[in-house]
């Protein structure tokens, strides 16, 4: 192949270069060619990523003898004319083969269908061929009828599925009267507790109706057990190390409550906490709010009590690993932070 640059006419190929311009699916690529046809086909297949088992045809239309028509290059002619090939079109022959084979099959199918009726054998009349076509139509009609019956039968099964779903979700709907009994009022809670005692179940079970089952009643018992300790709270001291501290909060629920903490400069901050929160977390939050070093801070509890007709106040340190309820802290507790001085930490080191 000989070529000259369109930018610089002085730049041109030195002699015939074994390279051709190949096009495949609107993609152009320079590919090296050789005298061996199979070797060139392998290079084209690898360059355009064509399947190895594909039947590839090479076409050319740039030669004068082609007169603008695309002519297939046969393997026998390629080895003679490969030096004159400049622009080649790559075509996969499988697509054309499929198009050619589909047309005869369709024509043959049209020819074979009417043969039983068009060419009757000797001794047979036109009426003998009619039953054959009628049977064929009957078979087609029966096939369509069977398909329609299957389609018509499909919606019949849908109510069965919905009925099963309704029966499966029936128990949650029967639990609605139980929720109504639970929300009728606060004054009826003791009556709801009596219906589970062996001595007083008659009147309440008759009000609930026969649709109530034991599975529907059990969730109400669990809810009442959780609420019951709140109604009858009795403060019992859980911490015996400090008898002068107030009693801890009840153990049923652990609601949030507000506490007030004062720093050494009499700055006040309010926090929300629970009885299960440890002292170290409350202390860390207070130190962060007051910009106080946590390592030298202690959370103190001030208790005031009467002694000999006068009021006295004592201070207790809340251990960091104890909880707020264990230290008897509630929303009325007086909490403040005590910070160790720097010299207090250096004295043990000097004494050693």
From TrEMBL:
<feature type="region of interest" description="Disordered">
    <location>
        <begin position="226"/>
        <end position="258"/>
    </location>
</feature>
<feature type="region of interest" description="Disordered">
    <location>
        <begin position="144"/>
        <end position="212"/>
    </location>
</feature>
<protein>
    <submittedName>
        <fullName>Uncharacterized protein</fullName>
    </submittedName>
</protein>
<feature type="compositionally biased region" description="Acidic residues">
    <location>
        <begin position="147"/>
        <end position="156"/>
    </location>
</feature>
<feature type="region of interest" description="Disordered">
    <location>
        <begin position="101"/>
        <end position="131"/>
    </location>
</feature>
């Amino acid at each position: 192949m000989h070529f000259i640059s369109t930018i610089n006419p002085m730049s041109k190929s030195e002699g015939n270069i074994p390279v051709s311009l190949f096009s495949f699916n609107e993609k152009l690529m320079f590919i090296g060619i050789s005298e061996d046809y199979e070797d060139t086909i392998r290079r084209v297949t690898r360059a355009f990523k064509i399947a190895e088992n594909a039947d590839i045809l090479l076409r050319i239309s740039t030669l004068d003898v082609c007169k603008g028509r695309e002519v297939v290059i046969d393997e026998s002619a390629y080895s003679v004319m490969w030096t004159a090939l400049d622009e080649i079109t790559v075509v996969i022959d499988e697509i054309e083969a499929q198009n050619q084979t589909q047309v005869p099959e369709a024509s043959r199918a049209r020819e074979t269908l009417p043969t039983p009726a068009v060419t009757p054998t000797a001794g047979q009349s036109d009426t003998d061929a009619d039953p054959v076509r009628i049977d064929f139509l009957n078979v087609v009609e029966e096939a369509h009828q069977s398909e329609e019956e299957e389609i018509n039968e499909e919606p019949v099964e849908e109510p069965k599925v919905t009925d099963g779903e309704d029966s499966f979700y029936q128990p949650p709907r029967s639990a609605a009267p139980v929720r109504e009994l639970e929300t009728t009022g606060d004054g009826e809670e003791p009556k709801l507790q009596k219906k589970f005692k062996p001595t007083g179940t008659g009147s309440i079970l008759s009000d609930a109706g026969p649709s109530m089952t034991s599975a529907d009643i059990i969730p109400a018992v669990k809810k009442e057990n959780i609420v019951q300790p709140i109604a009858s709270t009795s403060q019992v001291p859980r911490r015996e190390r400090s008898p002068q501290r107030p009693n801890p909060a009840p153990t049923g629920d652990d609601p949030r409550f507000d506490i007030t903490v004062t720093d050494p400069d009499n700055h006040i901050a309010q926090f929300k906490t629970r009885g299960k929160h440890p002292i170290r977390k409350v202390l860390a939050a207070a130190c962060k709010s007051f910009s106080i070093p946590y390592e030298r801070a202690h959370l103190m509890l001030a208790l005031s009590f009467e002694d000999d007709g006068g009021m006295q106040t004592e201070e207790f340190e809340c251990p960091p690993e104890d909880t707020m309820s264990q230290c008897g802290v509630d929303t009325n507790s007086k909490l403040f932070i005590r910070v160790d001085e720097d010299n207090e930490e250096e004295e043990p080191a000097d004494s050693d």
